Amino acid sequence: MYIGVDVGGTFTDIAINRDDGSNLLLHKLPSTPDAPEQAIVEGLRMIMEQEGLSAANVRRLAHGTTVGTNALIQRKCGTVGLITSRGFRDLLEIGRQTRPAVYDMHSDHPAPLVERHLRIDVPQRTLADGSVHVPLDEDAVREAAGRLAAAKVDCVVVCFLHSYAFPADEQRAAQILLANLPNHVTVISSSSVYPEFREYERFSTTVLNAALITIIGSYLDRLTASVAGLGVPSEVKISQSAGGLMSVRMAREYPIRASLSGPAAGVQGALRRATAAGFPDIITLDVGGTSADVALLRDGTAVEVNERDLAGFPIRIPALDVNAVGAGGGSIAWIDRDGLLKVGPRSAGAVPGPLCYDLGGTEPTVTDANVMLGRLNNETLLDGRMPIEAGVAVDGITRLATALEVTPDETALGILRVACATMVKAIRSISVERGHTPSDFALFVYGGAGALFASDVARELGMKRVVVPPDPGILCAEGAMNAALSTDFVTTILAPLGTEGLRDLRSAAEELQARAANWFTAESVPVEQERRVWTIGARYFGQNYELTLPFDLTLSSDRLMAELKEAFHAKHETTYGFASKSEPIQIVNVAVKAIGELERPSLPVLSEDGKAAPVSRRPVLFDNDHRVDTPVYARTDLFSGQLIAGPAIVEQMDTTVVIFPEETAVVDLWGNLVIDIRRL
């Protein structure tokens, strides 16, 4: 068996592939935010008991988590101390001197995670060329260790200038700190986390990693012990922000790499499902309880970036390019001071949840609007395991309607339209603003609420086709289950793209090759499953940001130089609208993604022998006119090749699909529901 688990803010999702051609086993239950491992273990125990499965047969258990992200947002992190070069203790506070919102004089960046009295500078200064301007004062490091030990810190980070290229002083300072701090205090250096230039981003990433080490380490200890208690023999694998998996050992050392793992796992799941079904160009829309995440995939490849924001802090690590906005099923509808209806970013979360859950919520949400309009079942969700109190939802929306001086139906439709507009804006930012036309892509929707918004979003963007995978609410868990082991190594070189620069490139690649080989050995990856993807960061001299380009180390230097120049100019023109072919190009860094291919279970296919009939009917409001008597289908009853004419509702354990009037949907061999948005 192969198991994927995704822990979200509202639900914990579990997918099990028995690799025998049968359908996936799926389970969804409310998350337990205070102890996320409890929902995981309870869900695994429940589904194994129901299906008569043995935990001893589990070959892989992969896990995507938001524990780190939530800890940073809530600032429930370990206490971190910082050792840095003399004069740079306030770098974390100064940052880039940019404002979060240009015209908001009251908005500011979050306070640094390291309090000022725990940021200690010591005499040390290595220049950009490697020459020593001020030698490391080892006695000052020992004195700093005593001060930080007295402050009862959990972790100490060492961040010196130019250590991305010259890490010797950081390494020596870390040795001194380890010898002079209590055994329970972790010491890490910025050059060990992700050695790239740009001091602020490197310092910030290292501090965030340090802040998560204690809380993630504790969580992983509890999780691995609980899973082992079930009898699962395999080690838990952790999903990364870049989409691959890492071992628990790596996750304990570099928890920052798992900070955006949930959305990345969803993109991985969408990538496999979409390419198998013949849709290499897709825009993904993942709508959960708290947020909507969108990504663009061209030619079956996801876009990767090296810099993201996390809880207001910059992080410099590889991550899939996923844009998140505060619009989900639990997003709260409210009236702003201008008297206009707003939706999100506040969310009701798992507790108390939407009004219709009847768990103590007091404000109407997107889910309540869908229940009131008849798009969501007004009696139960999760195959009957979650009762719905439709009357409570109606009462809440009616109160909001009274304040807005419109009808309750108009209010419910307005809530959905505002949420839809937020999602459309997010998609435009990764498509139209980057030179892509949305109508050239299929909209691939997943998450518990993605299929509820699919048609509205596609129509707003002029998209002609929507793809709903067989188990959209569990796709993040499925994506984690099917991912490969991976890690990234990088080194900064800052050399011109020429004969000298290529020598530096090949020299750096040899060093990275050795580091990748050590990682493959440590992770016990067989040679035949090893794979390496090489990239460089390049820019015109004087530019602030670089573009990432793949390259082939086996090419001759002349051919490699020609191909890199051609590829850079072409990508620069695509990205920025112009290319200056006479301008010299600078190689900024060299990176390798080491990939350990894992066995992947096959995707189940649907039978073609039959045609499902509706299981019920209910009135549904699609627009301002009137409610339409709409057939309701059970997703598990559908057969490959079956055609469904709208209006229709398709229900399943993990989501509900809305097919609008004058739309048609067909079930393909893989169980995807492909909706044609064009009018009949």
Question: What features would you highlight for this structure?
Answer:
alpha+beta; 680 residues; Dna Ligase, domain 1; six-stranded mixed beta sheet; nine-stranded mixed beta sheet; single chain; 26% strand
Summarize the structure in words.
- Helix 10 packs across helix 12 (408-430).
- The chain is of the alpha+beta class and 680 residues long.
- The longest helix has 31 residues, at 199-229.
- Among the domains are: 333-416, no CATH class; 485-596, Dna Ligase, domain 1 (2-Layer Sandwich).
- The strands form 10 sheets. Strands 13, 14, 15, 20, 25, 26, 33, 36 and 37 form a 9-stranded mixed beta sheet that branches.
- The protein is globular.
- The protein is built from 16 helices and 37 strands.
- Helix content is 32%, strand content 26%.
- The relative contact order is 0.11.
- The two termini are 43 Å apart.
- Helix 13 (450-461) links the parallel strand 25 (442-446) and strand 26.
Approximate strand percentage: 25-35%
Main beta-sheet annotation: 9 strands, mixed
Overall geometric form: globular
Give unreliable regions as ranges: none
Quaternary state reads single chain
| Structural class by helix and strand composition | alpha+beta
CATH class of the domain at 485-596: Alpha Beta
Number of helices: 16
Strand segment tally: 37
End-to-end Cα distance, whole Å, is 43 Å
Proper CATH architecture of the domain at 485-596: 2-Layer Sandwich
Looking at the structure, the CATH topology of the domain at 485-596 is: Dna Ligase, domain 1
Radius of gyration from the CA trace? 26 Å
